[in-house]
Amino acid sequence: MVDHEDVRYVARLARLRLEPHELDRYAEQLSSILKHINKISELDLEGTEPMSHVLDLTNVLREDEVHDSLDSEEALANGPDVEDGAFRVPPIIGE
Amino acid sequence: MNLLRLTATEALRRLADRELSSAELTGAYLEQMERCEGDISAYLHTDAEASRKAAAAVDASPGGGTLAGLPTAIKDVLCTRGIPTTCGSRMLEGFIPVYTATCVSRMEDAGIVSLGKTNMDEFAMGSSTENSAYGTTRNPWDTQRVPGGSSGGSAAAVAAGEALWALGTDTGGSIRQPASFCGVVGLKPTYGAVSRYGLVAFASSFDQVGPVTRSVRDAALMLRHLVGKDPLDSTSVEHPEAIADPVDRDLSGLRLGVVSELAGEGIEAGVNEVFREALARLQAAGAELGEASLPHVEYCIPAYYILAPAEASANLARFDGVRYGHRASGAGDVTEMYELTRSEGFGDEVKRRIMLGTYALSSGYYDAYYGQAQKVRSLVVGDFRAAFADYDLLLSPTTPTTAFRIGEKVDDPLSMYMSDVCTTPANLAGLPAISIPAGLSQGLPVGLQLFGPAFSENLLLQAAHSAESVLGFQAASPLVEELD
Fold it and tell me: Who among B96, B301, B339 is closest to A16 (CB)?
């Protein structure tokens, strides 16, 4: 049901790089999981409201007041590559 | 006296009466950790010196907080300022949070002594703790078996006498299933009752923090300290009732519905036997038992394994090697850096769920999977509403089997997912549910699960407390029993 092409496509969307030998395994496992999950397609749910959240909450607001928050040193503390108060990353736009 | 059998409630009384010091109590736990960790591996991070110091500080200034001096284990998915937090993942190896989860800081404000951070399935995805990047935790009742998951470290620590009690989290059963496998009490509160601030997100519309304890009263005691609206989590709400200490009384007048879809087919014979015996005892203690139905329960696993991975695929996008955690070296551009980082940092199950969730949300499949699963969620809520019109609480076994063998399901993700069949309905509907030990089947613990309506924690805990005394489960894991 899910073939190598699907696995490659989804992995690319999720920014995962798979080894060629992993494609078989994931295709087989995802197929077997999806086969079970497809059970929900047998339900006729025309007219049933989808539920995104169990609590009846809308627009949770608070006063616009200044509170303490992390300073930049703390915010950067776990950065794998930090320079001049910023996170450094490899080039985003190619040469 | 075996200090490792004490409940938190009893330990608190002895500490208050100066019959016991936190240094003695904490020392007993640290000693047991030293004795058992080689076999059990419940913890990912400990600091005995810091725990001893904290206990001594409590003893030096009596009249501290309402949980002063109680040695506590914390699941490693909860951020602790200055203390490593890995979520059982290579991705967060070496990560030191700069803030503390609200649930942890509330417990700390009340004076707990932290014993350390407990092992878990990577990012709380799993039902056995085998998905931890740092090795499997073993079940204290039989070290060839899993402790359950994802809060397997927390449940194993409490069962092995390596913690008085512990914090866990439950997204699809991750508190109740390991509690059941390890013969301890585990409560998943109503969604929104406990702040998720500082809980590393897996599936945000399901995740809840809750207690793993040795008694129902202990679960009530811990929950009382956890609940409440938190300005830092806009989905948290004020609990409509103060969480009460359950009192000793029978079950007369309580209408309990046995969920027929979760109490027959698919449940291991030994589990069913213990469950039926428990029902007979509850009835003898005055409970009015009847048969309840959740007609859409067979769609819970499919719906859960669409919605939770879909939410996870979005939540785990944050692990991109930029702001924290692992970063792959040698990437030529940023896209390659993302891909290498995530492929190196995540384990197999996390990758599987991210891909499953991404697939369910991808163009052309969204309505058939994600949209349909959200509608199933509405049906499940409706099923519970109808059942609670006839019954105060619902009952089922917590898990279809007792603890399985290490390695038994690790190559078969679907069969692993099916072990959540009795627990996911409460997460889909956002309801509170508790697992209490009901007895043993071939020497392994069996859990009884009680479900309640939203925000019915007081009713649920009271009934569970009465049931606990009726069932009279006194056994402790061999690691604790041999010290009697």
Answer: B339
